[in-house]
């Protein structure tokens, strides 16, 4: 016969999740079940709050703006290597903030009280870069009127950031490998080796694995550099951070000029739909342009956007173009810049490929001639998840 004391204990979490327990027993058992569920809900909420606070603390400590999922993964990696002295290789497109990440690694390390030295390997020819890195002795070449310490000497005890390491010549790759293996190098024109204790962080926007296969980058050096690999996501992969980044750049300009400004909804929508080939650096330049051209206006409208960003299709139009099949040739709008034209064509081709494959990404990737992983990344960047389904 049915038990009159049977009942259901339930509680709802802050994210909408419903916890429910069926109790077939006395009233006190039901009360205990409800208390247990309330306690579980409180513990889960406390854990979620603690995690969010931890992620914000990591963002503040690293000095990097971002709350999107790709950036949280980046912060977790930085937290794991805290205190490590391992060599790190930072990968990412131009303008993503690789040097900012390198500085964060240094600041969170045991070498934080020592020097952080940075150089761009693509900014010098071979001879000048060798002198820049390792120094030279007086008279070692024309113009060497005195001894000069190299940046490895300057960075001794601290961190040395080598940006665009993929542009380094094979001869200098050998010298860099020796520093990594033995901590020694030979200044140009010297007869005695110098020994240093330097943590090396390298970065590149090039595909070093492909370069290794092609024989343009040493395999042994690649593995020496790639002890800890950190990938900095492009702005296209973290568009959720655009409002946050925009607010950050506007606040910094306000501190400089003493005026406060905000982005209009229309301007923000255009920023969110732009492809951002120049990544965060391009966004920063665009925000400063908006700041200047908006004059004394408090609200920055989309009419002040640069032509490239201002021509980005509105969100609703962009989604409609992607979702609607077209029998017409893929004509491009006149006046598009090359990056925008490439983006438009790529977006349309991916949408057509997904429709032809009825949403099957493996088949669409094969048709388009790209990897499935690369296709998924582009589908997410262009907002084409529902195309073909």
Any overview of this molecule?
This protein is an alpha/beta fold. The chain has four domains: 35 residues; 163 residues, Rossmann fold (3-Layer(aba) Sandwich); 74 residues, Orthogonal Bundle (Helicase, Ruva Protein, domain 3); 63 residues, Arc Repressor Mutant, subunit A, CATH 1.10.10. The chain has 16 helices and 13 strands. The strands form five sheets. A five-stranded parallel β-sheet has the order 4-7-10-3-11. A two-stranded antiparallel sheet has the order 1-2. A hairpin with an 8-residue loop joins strand 8 and strand 9. The protein is globular. The two termini are 50 Å apart.
How many β strands by DSSP?
13
Order of helices and strands: EEHHEHEHEEHEHEEEHHEHEHHEHHHHH
Total separate domains: 4
Q: What percentage of amino acids are in beta strands?
A: 5-15%
User: Radius of gyration from the CA trace?
Assistant: 27 Å
The geometry reads as: globular
CATH superfamily of the largest domain: P-loop containing nucleotide triphosphate hydrolases
Largest sheet: 5 strands, parallel
Mean pLDDT across residues? 83
- Name the poorly predicted regions: 316-323, 326-330
* Terminal Cα span: 50 Å
- In helices, the fraction of residues equals 40-55%
Q: Please give the order of strands in the largest beta sheet.
A: 4-7-10-3-11
Number of helices: 16
CATH architecture field of the largest domain: 3-Layer(aba) Sandwich
CATH class of the largest domain: Alpha Beta
Structural class: alpha/beta
CATH topology value of the largest domain = Rossmann fold
